[in-house]
Structure formats: C-alpha cells, structure tokens
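FAQ

Q: What does a record look like?
A: Structure on top, sequence underneath. For example:
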C-alpha cells in the first residue's frame, strides 16, 4: 500500500522534501491561492444573484487540482465532474473565462451556454465537466485508448467523487482500462460525503476507491489530498507509469470540502466540530507553512496573494461589464457540426 507518508518522503538523506524545487513550489502555491480566490469569488457572486442556478465549489480541495495540473504535460487531458471549476482553472483557463461562464456572460468559456457544471476547453486539455455521476470514466478510457492506438504519449486523467465508486461505470471503466493497459489515471477525491450521505454508511470497505484497486490488479494508493507536494509526486509517478505503457492507476485522495455539496446545501448533516478539525489541515495553510520551511519569505507569498487577488478582481469587473450572450447563438453547437438540425 502506498500511503501519504510514503509519498511525502524526500530523497534519502535530504532532511527536507527538496526534490520539487522552489520554482515549482511557488507555482503550486500560486495555483492553490488562485483556485481558492476564484471559488470564493464565485460564492460571493452567487450571493449577489449574479450566478444563477447552483454551483459546486472545491473550497478546501485545491491541493488535488493544483498538484495534478502541475504534474501534467501539454496535451494531457482532464475529465472533471460538475465540481470542475478548480480543475479547469488549474489547467490554465483564465479566471475571467470561468467566472464569465458562471455568470452566463458572452465572455464566458462557452459564451454563457454551459454554465457551472459543463466547463470545457479543448485548448487547455479540459475535456468537459460531467453532471452525470460516473459518465466520464468510460469517456476517459476512450480518449486513452485513442492515444494508445495512435502511439501518442498523452495521458487522460479522470477526477471523480467518492460516491462515484458505487456506480457501475466506475467498475466497468477500471476493468476495461486494466485489461487494455490504457494510459489513464483515475483520481477519487474522497471528501467523505456523497452529496449528503457519508460514504462510509453505504460502502462495504473503508476506502471506497483504493480498497477496490486489487480487484483490477492495481496498486492500492491512498494519499493526503490536502498536501500539494504529496499529490504532485503521486501524480508524476502515475503519469510516468502510463506514458511508459504500464497501464492505469487508481489514486484515492483524502480531502474535505469546506462548503456544502452545492450552494443549496448548508451542510448541517456534518457532525459538530468536523469542519473545524479539517480546516486545521487547510491545504493553503499547509503549503504556506511548507514554503516557510524552505525559506520562502512572507513578502514572496504576500506578492503572490496580491497578484492573484488583482487577477480575480479584474476578472470580476470584466464579467460584470460583459454583455449577455446574443439570442442568435441559442441553437448553435447542439451537434458536432456546430448546428442544431438533426442528421440521420
């Protein structure tokens, strides 16, 4: 079993985990802060009635998106759930494009037509956010099969929640990927709750993803999903394995969402004190302390935070000033040819 402790260990005799390097660590910190600020702004805009419908935030889970994105190469593909804002931003999509989409503005990533749960950017390797639980796992297998067939070296990464592990598509995709040794990495973001129900109440094993890995001949991998260094190292190893033709990996990242399942959920079903205990392990707090260990100054971190806040503030104002999408695009992009007419 690979544990968080194993994954966190630095090179022999190094004392500290100095294998990642300051440049990459600063990038990981910037990414996490950027995700936090953008998601918090999305929440604020929802309260101002500028984001319609609902949204599913990743507040508290930023280390997973940041760690995996930093380990990915250009051309690698991300497949996300409806909780996909963070993964989309982590792949380099501008904040303005994401907030604009949430606000249904013409400057949005999909010109306001996709909304919170359907973010997609082929340019950045973000191959969609999927609102149907488990639907994207077989699709990620298909993308990986294409890479294998053509001899391409890109890897598909599929993120999903703990509740997905009780869906048939999870088991079918794992089996298919293992049999064909596909270059795909499955990432379970286990935040302990499948919507409003504790995953442990409805699952026969303690770790819903990792404890099932052996059934498909895969390594049991459980990591601390709130530590970006641990996530980055684990992701890098899985990508190297996939690129070498050695098949898929299944990684369970233990984490916790600070907010409810969606903006309609106050999260009152959680035991008293549980959220406070997890906030002590806030990924940004952990990483700030980590950077101090490596001699990064308060000024360096403050400069990153100020730069990110300005980016989010500028994006917010641009989105508020942006027009709504024109009515004449309503029926475009229904089919692959860009139109709406049925082709038989």
């Amino acid at each position: 079993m690979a544990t968080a402790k194993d994954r966190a260990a630095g090179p022999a005799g190094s004392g500290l985990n100095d294998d990642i390097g300051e440049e990459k660590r600063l990038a990981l910190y910037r990414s996490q802060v950027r995700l936090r600020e953008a998601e918090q702004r999305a929440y604020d805009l929802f309260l101002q009635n500028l984001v319609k419908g609902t949204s599913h935030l990743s507040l508290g889970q930023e280390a997973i998106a940041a760690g995996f994105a930093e380990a990915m190469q250009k051309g690698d593909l991300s497949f996300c759930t409806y909780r996909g804002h963070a993964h989309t931003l982590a792949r380099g999509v501008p904040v303005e494009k994401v907030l604009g989409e949430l606000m249904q503005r013409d400057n949005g990533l999909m010109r306001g037509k996709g909304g919170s749960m359907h973010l997609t950017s082929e340019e950045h390797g973000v191959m969609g956010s999927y609102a149907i639980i488990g639907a994207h796992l077989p699709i990620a297998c298909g993308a990986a099969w294409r890479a294998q067939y053509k001899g391409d070296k890109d890897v598909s990464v599929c993120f999903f929640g703990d509740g997905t592990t009780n869906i048939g598509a999870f088991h079918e995709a794992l089996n298919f990927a293992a049999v064909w040794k596909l270059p795909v990495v499955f990432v379970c973001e286990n935040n302990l709750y499948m919507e409003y129900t504790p995953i442990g109440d409805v699952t026969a094993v303690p770790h819903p993803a990792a404890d099932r890995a052996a059934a498909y001949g895969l390594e049991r991998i459980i990591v601390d999903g709130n530590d970006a260094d641990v996530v980055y190292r684990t992701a890098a190893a899985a990508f190297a394995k996939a690129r070498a033709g050695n098949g898929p990996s299944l990684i369970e990242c233990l984490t916790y969402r600070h907010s409810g399942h969606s903006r309609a959920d106050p999260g009152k079903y959680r035991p008293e004190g549980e959220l406070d205990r997890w906030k002590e392990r806030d990924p940004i707090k952990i990483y700030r302390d980590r950077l101090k260990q490596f001699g990064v100054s308060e000024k360096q971190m403050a400069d990153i935070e100020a730069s990110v806040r300005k980016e989010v503030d500028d994006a917010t104002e641009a989105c508020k000033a942006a027009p709504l999408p024109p009515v004449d695009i309503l029926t475009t992009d229904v089919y692959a040819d860009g139109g709406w007419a049925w082709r038989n």
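Q: Is there anything notable about this one?
A: The radius of gyration is 20 Å.
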